[in-house]
Fold this protein.
Amino acid sequence: MLAYIARRIVTTIPVVIMVAIVIFALLRVTPGDPAAIIAGDDASPAQLENIREQMGLNLPIHEQFLTWGGRLLHGDLGTSLLSGTAVMDLIADRMGPTIALAISTMTFTLLIAIPIGVIAAWRHGKLTDRFVMILSVLGFSIPTFVVGYLLIYFFSLKLGWFPVQGYRDLSHGFYEFARRLVLPTIALSSVYVALIARITRSSVIEVMNEDFVRTARAKGVKESTVFLRHALRNAAVPIVTIVGIGVAALIGGVVVTESVFNIPGLGRLVVEAVLARDYPIIQGVILLFSLTYIFINLVVDVLYTVFDPRITY
Amino acid sequence: MEYRNVSKSRRIAVLGSLFAASVMSASTAHAATTVTAVMHAGLRVMDPVFSTAFLTRDHGYMIYDTLLGVDEKFEIRPQMAEWSVSDDNKTYTFTLREGLAWHDGAAVTAEDCVASLERWLSVDSTGQVLRTFIESINATGTDAFEIRLNQPTGLLLSGLAKLSSRPAFMMPKRIAATPGSEAITQFVGSGPFIFIQDEFRPGVKVVYARNPDYRPRQEPASWTAGGKVVNVDKVEWVAMPDAMTSVNALLNDEVDFVQQVPLDLLPLLTSNDEIKVKAIDELGNWTYFRFNHLHAPFDNPRLRQAAMLAVDQKQVLQALVGNPEYSRTCATTFGCGNPYESDYRHDDVVEPQLEKAKSLLKEAGYDNTPVVVLHPTDMATVSPQPVVVADALRKAGFNVQLKTMDWQSVIMQQGNQAAPADGGWNIFATYSTLATSGDPFGNTTIASNGKKAWAGWPDVPEIESLRKEFALATDSEKRKSIALKINELAIDNGVVVPLGQFTIPAAYRSSLSNVPHSPVTVFWSMSKND
């Protein structure tokens, strides 16, 4: 197993290099000029040229890549073209809200989705199953931002239970931290609950038709044990895969939720950087996202062996 | 020197922290008053001399001060300094008022101001012209300096009092020594607020504390002139990428002030008694379109006139704003409400004159050359204009091609002097604040020195010589008559075509009072009742 993990880690190196080259090249062929954003609308062509020179933006692309790559090898992701802040510091600053939201969303999702998925499978074809499936379709169909606005309207503006927006870290106390995460967590979970409940339901139904389940029932094992110990564990592989993809997506792709609830996370950082053509930030964050995907895939692969001993590496 | 800089910046951080701590400890006696404001973007670029971005300028007004200010009657007033002028109008002496101090505790000296002026003169569009009139700038004492001109110019006072963008902000000499082409990295001003470095999160939040040592002028505040009296302990600027969220946060009493409210969300606020909605920048913005004078068909002045005649300002404003309360037609290039307002060829600029346009097209022998109009789709303030202009031009008989792209691409394209068939353009539309565009130097669209001019590259030597005359004029009536002539030439030559004016309202909780009305957003004078 350790050899497998080591091999997988080694294979991340060419992947990261490829990602670095592709993202660098893509950004340079995309129209846009960071100097124009920094200087403002009224800047003269000479001023723009000065800024480009100061920032090395007028160097040939291969020279810019070598400079950035050289720094990267020393663990330096560069500095923001606009604010002059180290990209590493910006990522560290925005990482907290993103991870907090990802953890709360995935925890809430698993607590809701797996039980209702199992119940739907248990009551397969009955009213409960249909009800869960209707909820699931709704979860898929209603965009997250609509759910977000509805939650804000009822729970913030009408009932006054939660703030409309913002993020406070744990240094402000658990209550302040948690109450700002409730609505974004519910909004963001709606899609994941729908997805994971559906996968759980179909996986469990599939496993329930296996011979070993029939054998367990024939032996007189309690129905709850059959579900939780035999069926659910064997249905875990596809669920873990979806959860893994979900976690990776939560870390990189919750821009809309971060915007609706004004959470200063990594998704917002990268979108703002794209709009401002702040190349070092985009490159740094995309590299981080690619590493996250690679790491989560590795964790998921390792978890397969925990849930299904037949899988070995 | 490096050690000194570090030590200074540490002192500022310590002073800022001490002040924040003192504000917090004072909360036992009274709660610290904090105004939380949602600005139109997140602050990232911090140097208001390096960048002309409006948010950077507003940040400048928080922590820096200017030698002179402008009041609501467009009069130039003393701010940090009083001035006197020699009989030949060639030597100006500026004397700093008493009690001016930087946020690190050091006194503001004339040498600091000279260094700040040198930096500003090297990069600002007005400053660069002004520099050609300056023979020398010398400190004559710790609190006085002298500017000698090679010939009298009205640009000196108007430049030093410039509202936007970029105002001549004063900084300590060690910081102002940074070349204008490089951004400064220390933010020490002498203005009414202190920037709290420790709480700054680029693009997310900026915190300013009241400068306890600031001594405001005695006159009432008016725009950037008069006493900048601060009545709150802290001001926090927060960025919210979603306008709906900022409106909800204002309704829920989580923020106090929203700098710009999209017009479609106004009904949510106007019906609430606890919210006030006002255009605090009463001058507002003007929108316009530019021709590319280098290439056909708009290298032909008659076709530029035909295009101008075809467009209906009311339709543009209806598409852009949709609410007459926040928009008005205006035929002048220096803005209605500004001192150089004019009605010259009002009907030709404002009303659609399709028949005249069609006959001009015929007279000019238009050969159906395609007109490439740049159309940004990702910014509500610049997206509708090209569609309305293109439609009007088509009705007049032009062969129009709308080229759709994002705003960043438009900015890139603007500078492209290639022919439209080779990736260039014929028309683009944008907008500017009237605080910036009210005179022939602040208004970048007016320069008409061919390929050295702003995008569009008009070549009208008469305008250039009149701009020079304007720079030399010191009498306000003479300046006005020159500006009006420039406006006429700009309209007649299709240098820029005005499409109307609009304001973007701000909204704030009724707990805020005395919110200043000014073309730049400022936070002095206002009070907050809890």
